[in-house]
Design goal:
Shape: globular
Strand content: 5-15%
Strand order of the largest sheet: 3-4-6-5-7-10-8-9
Radius of gyration: 19 Å
Number of helices: 10
Helix content: 25-40%
Structural class: alpha/beta
Length: 363
């Protein structure tokens, strides 16, 4: 079965390379949205709510960077727009909350949570007082699909999605077994580790730090919108730091806080865990650092990069149980509405609220 999956993946990658393949369908596997489905949704939301939404192209997927089709990496900024809001700089007055999803393509539920978060914010404005106040006073940034080429591979077998985790950079060679590509959550320019594995290993970190255009796009956005409030790596962030970053993964029902690259405590560990515990109180997820929870370290991760370079509290949410109904990478689409969203919605609202003073006294 693994061999068959690898062959199917290779075939899908050939299509991507030779025909600029992406599925014209909007959904797959019972309702999950393809990249095209997300792109159409992003455009429709921005067009319908010009007073609330700015849609940005922040960079290219690997295949697009090669001139072989591919996608833009898209980001939305949601707020009640006033002059200076949602600009690609760090001078805006509103605290920023960033939700980042589907950097690992096979983790299907993560992109759907981002999709539902976008809809919640725009549909609740002027209707729900709490969410209206949130949109009035925060910049709510969303990257629904951080790895669109990978999602194209996953969705290319819509009845039984392929288990592509990485992007589709096959420049290091083909894989007889396993999936080619770079693990974008090991490719950041913070504690990048060449020993994470070779090109056919799921945690392959790339040929060098920030080698992938998707990584450059995400780091570029975050550098622009968040000021650097942190000195040396071992220094704590300034008490005045604002902002919160959540990256969604699956699975395990955990919240992971920095550091992920080492078991040594981050300088703000106690405050990071305290904020994590507030979000864990509504999700039921425990908070871990280091190799706790998932059982391995994650050098080169997005969340470590942002906290380590800018001081912004950054978390990885591992969505979904390890066993039972709604477990694994490919839960039924119905699990999004029935199980994941009811837990995550209040956690996202809390995180966005806390972005004003995440290292201060928590409500």
């Amino acid at each position: 079965m693994r061999r068959l999956a690898a062959l199917l993946c290779t075939f899908a990658l050939m299509l991507l390379s030779s025909t600029a393949y992406s599925s014209p369908a909007l959904t797959y596997y019972g309702g999950y949205h393809t990249v095209v489905g997300h792109e159409q949704h992003n455009a429709a939301v921005a067009a319908a709510h010009p007073d609330l939404v700015k849609l940005y192209d922040i960079g290219d997927s690997w295949t697009k960077a090669q001139g072989r089709g591919g996608h833009d990496i898209q980001a939305l900024c949601i707020t009640k727009l006033a002059p200076g809001d949602c600009a690609l700089n760090s001078t805006g007055k509103k605290p920023k909350f960033v939700l980042h999803a589907q950097i690992h393509a096979r983790e299907l539920a993560t992109g759907e949570i981002a999709y539902k978060w976008i809809d919640l914010l725009v549909s609740s404005y002027g209707v729900d007082p709490e969410l209206t106040a949130l949109v009035d006073t925060r910049e709510l940034w969303v990257v629904p699909i951080a790895n669109p080429d990978g999602v194209d591979v996953v969705a290319s077998n819509p009845a039984q999605p392929l288990l592509q985790r990485k992007n589709v950079d096959d420049s290091a060679g083909d894989c007889v077994t396993g999936y080619p590509g770079v693990d974008l959550n090991r490719n950041s320019s913070f504690h990048w580790d060449a020993d994470q594995g070779g090109p056919c290993v799921e945690t392959y970190p790339g040929s060098k730090a920030a080698s992938e255009p998707e990584t450059v796009a995400i780091q570029g956005l975050l550098k622009k919108i968040f000021p650097d409030t942190k000195g040396a790596v071992d220094d704590p962030a300034a008490a005045s730091t604002s902002g919160v970053f959540l990256t969604l993964h699956s699975y395990g029902n955990d919240i992971l806080a920095p550091w992920g690259y080492t078991d040594t405590a981050a300088p703000d560990r106690d405050k990071l865990v305290a904020l994590g515990n507030k979000m864990g109180a509504v999700t039921g997820y425990p908070v871990f650092t280091g190799d706790g929870g998932i059982g391995y370290l994650t050098p080169g991760s997005t969340s470590d990069w942002l906290y380590g370079t800018r001081g912004v509290p950054s978390y990885t949410f591992e969505i979904g149980p390890k066993w039972g109904a709604c477990a694994g990478f490919l839960p039924a689409y119905s699990c999004v509405a029935s199980t994941f969203w009811p837990l995550l919605k209040p956690a996202l609202v809390y995180a966005a609220t806390a972005a004003a003073a995440p290292y201060g006294k928590l409500p």
